[in-house]
Amino acid sequence: MAQSVAVFGEALVDDFSSARVVGGAPFNLARHLAGFGLPVTMVTRIGDDDNGALIRNEFARYGMSEAGLQTGTGEATGSVHVEVGADGSHRFTIVPDQAYDHIDSAAATAAVAAADPGIFCFGTLAQRDPVSRAALHALLERTQAVRFLDLNLRPGHVTESIVFDSLQQADIVKVNEEELQQLFKWYCHTCPDTVNIECISVDTECRAMMHNFSLSTLIVTLGARGALYLSADGAHVSDHGAATGECFVDAVGAGDAFDAVFLLGRLRGWTTGRTLARANAFAHASCGHAGAVPPELATYARWLEAWAREDE
């Protein structure tokens, strides 16, 4: 049986004027992992409403266990209001005081304990309310799993103190380029320019930060420029492979797609170089369809088959 993964955080609905799309970075990650055939326990909370039904339908579509899914009577399922400008730009309003802000600690602990995951994933948005933050802390105190933090900063919804605490709790941290620059400002002596991500000053400051927070691994995603992997044992691996050629539609959830394949590679024992290359390829491909997850679940099987042929 494949080693299981637990994911803690928001499952929500992106509310466009013309459509509602299920999302939330942790739920995107959980769905990808389930699509690749891994047992996943998604710890989140929804309301007993139409948006909650949409999220529950996604649990069913992906064949995911509902052991970690909580329902709050009278609570609103998480939502984000999305306004699309005339130039195609998007303006997001993350609605406060949603069901995922009230994750029950006892129920969450029971679900994760039963799953006994090898990897525990979390972010920062679902920590904005003390109730869910306390539930996360209870889980982190009890789990023996490797702790994977996708920082996923949302301005106005996370404080530096939450980031500091999250970094202290993590083993592996994934950030994008902008988030790395913010961490440099908070925790490092200098803020080197990451345009040249391979420069010595970037490596030096990253490793100082890793040492200070006792991180085993730091991953920096660079969009179309690939990704950088640093480990506490001195490894420095980068993959700057070109995009796969799909027509660009949007970059929604590309980071979550990367995370899923990175974790899959870790669980399957792929080399770091191969893992980064495959994670980047899957993330690039995710930009070729609307929304965070592929419209057809058969997509995952095609990727797994292609990777299996490469491994022969």
UniProtKB/TrEMBL annotation:
Query: What does the organism's lineage look like at the top?
Result: Bacteria, Pseudomonadati, Pseudomonadota, Betaproteobacteria, Burkholderiales
Please provide, alphabetically and separated by semicolons, the GO molecular function terms listed in this UniProt record: ATP binding; kinase activity
Similarity-based family = Belongs to the carbohydrate kinase PfkB family.
Entry's InterPro entries? Answer: PfkB_Carbo_kinase, PfkB_dom, Ribokinase-like
The signal peptide, as residue positions, is none
| Superkingdom of source | Bacteria
Q: Which UniProt keywords apply?
A: ATP-binding, Kinase, Nucleotide-binding, Transferase
The Carbohydrate kinase PfkB domain, residue ranges? 20-295
Instruction: Please give the name of this protein.
Output: Fructokinase
Q: Which PANTHER family match?
A: HEXOKINASE FAMILY MEMBER, PSEUDOURIDINE KINASE-RELATED
Which species is the source of this protein? Answer: Pseudoduganella lurida
A Pfam family recorded for this sequence: PfkB
